[in-house]
Write a structure and sequence with these properties.
The protein is α+β, with helices and mostly antiparallel strands and 428 residues long. It contains nine helices and 19 strands. Helix 7 crosses helix 8.
Length: 428
């Protein structure tokens, strides 16, 4: 029997093999993990759908595999296979001659032939649902020109709407002057080894996702960053005072839960920072829920798990959830759903070091807060020079949605929320 890649979840139909746990000749039990697959920012173990001896391994580390593709072939064993609905030789027959195939595959073939004028050579069919392909054909849309934002480059209806909106905006712009800037030149590969020894390291799927999303944010957003310093002295004292009580509950109390509560309170007073810009409908979406993303530094790259309904949870609950999500992110066990739905992001570099920086907005959000490392500094309080723990902050916001005055008021209220933190919120 062939063990094939099962459905990975909504919007996910492919992934990259990052680890293989079996070899030819190994005995495999049903539901035993046979390989690890990376999809977007999550890594998942793929179980065997049957039992037997591994006769052949069809994939290797680094291969991108799709749902229904063969992973391994088993012989012997007793468990009945959980077979995929399509017959095993279907793909080969379709390639050899125009034999009858299910309707979705026929539509995919038609789409693959509809190559744009800009890409005259053969290009693989875009990843999209049959209904979306049908709609694109009826409207005359070349899906090769549409950028898919879901896992594996899958195209959604929202991607098509965004593409149409860009066409409308482009048609409304006046023709560029002959002296206009030329199009971006194609990337040039440089042989750096001619100047000395080098080490090549492949770009991981996670790094590709990070690069794409950061580039999109940089190119689309009219970003402004506002800087300030916050007196964390009181928060530091509260943390030290209540840390033993939290440890008795099995939770380490850091300053981040305090940050979450202060930010949530400020977002309630300034809902425009908890919004998104819908460029297709020309609307600003104000969200009545507060889901905060926390940037986590991992060995593989940046991940942003989301804590939901922060304004409704206690400091103890936030400390527990934060600890769990951060651990899952570092172990690459976090799911794609646990990194979706954020309304505002916090990037805290205090544990590493550094002061002010300009964080890049995590689209489709409109603002992000960056925190640097706190340090004792001399400040004037009531006419006296005293040492206070000052933490640098940087608020980056989308100037298409938020004005400078609004950002200044948000920052003032955020400073107050930190410096006047209610001790009752810390008590267990």
């Amino acid at each position: 029997m062939d063990v094939k890649l099962p459905k990975l979840g909504e919007g996910a139909d492919s992934g990259v093999v990052v680890g293989i746990f079996v070899n030819v000749g190994d005995t495999v039990a049903q539901d035993q993990s046979i390989l690890e697959l990376e999809n977007e920012k999550a890594v998942a173990s793929i179980p065997s759908t049957g039992a037997g001896v591994v006769e052949k391994v069809h994939v290797k580390v680094g291969d991108r595999v799709s749902v229904g593709q063969r992973l391994i072939t088993l012989s012997g064993g007793g468990a009945a296979p959980v077979a995929a609905p399509a017959p095993k030789p279907a793909a080969k027959k379709a390639a050899a001659k125009p034999a009858p195939t299910p309707a979705p595959e026929a539509e995919e073939t038609e789409e693959a032939e509809e190559i744009s004028e800009e890409n005259p050579t053969h290009v693989a069919a875009p990843v999209a649902s049959p209904s979306l392909r049908r709609m694109a054909r009826e409207l005359g849309i070349d899906l090769h020109k549409v950028h898919g934002t879901e896992a594996g480059g899958r195209i959604t209806i929202q991607d098509v709407r965004n593409y149409l909106a860009k066409l409308v905006r482009a048609s409304a712009k006046p023709a560029p002057a002959p002296t206009g800037a030329p199009a971006k030149a194609a990337a040039v590969q440089v042989d750096f080894s001619q100047w000395g020894p080098i080490l090549k390291k492949p770009v991981t799927p996670l790094r590709k996702v990070i690069a794409r999303r950061m580039s999109e944010s940089w190119n689309q957003v009219a970003r402004v960053t506002q800087f300030d310093d916050i007196d964390f002295t009181k928060l530091g004292e509260l943390r030290k005072k209540y840390a033993p009580a939290y440890e008795a509950k099995g939770v380490k109390l850091t300053l981040t839960p305090f940050v979450l509560k202060a930010v949530a309170a400020t977002l309630k007073a300034h809902p425009i920072f908890n919004s998104s810009l819908d460029e297709v409908a020309n609307e600003i979406i104000l969200k009545e829920y507060i889901h905060l993303g926390i940037a986590v530094d991992t060995d593989q790259g940046l991940m942003v798990p989301v804590l939901r309904d922060v304004d409704k949870k206690s400091l103890l609950d936030l400390a527990k959830e934060l600890e769990q999500l951060a651990a899952k992110a570092r172990d690459r066990k976090i799911t794609a759903d646990e990194m979706k739905g954020g309304t505002f992001t916090i990037s805290n570099q205090g544990a590493i070091g550094g002061a002010h920086f300009t964080p890049i907005i995590n689209l489709p959000e409109v603002a992000i807060l960056g925190l640097g490392r706190g340090a004792l500094k001399p400040v004037v309080r009531d006419g006296q020079i005293v040492a206070r723990l000052l933490t640098p902050i940087a608020l980056s916001y989308d100037h298409r949605v938020i004005d400078g005055g609004s950002a200044a008021r948000f920052t003032v209220d955020l400073v107050k929320a930190f410096e006047n933190f209610d001790e009752a919120l810390v008590k267990i």
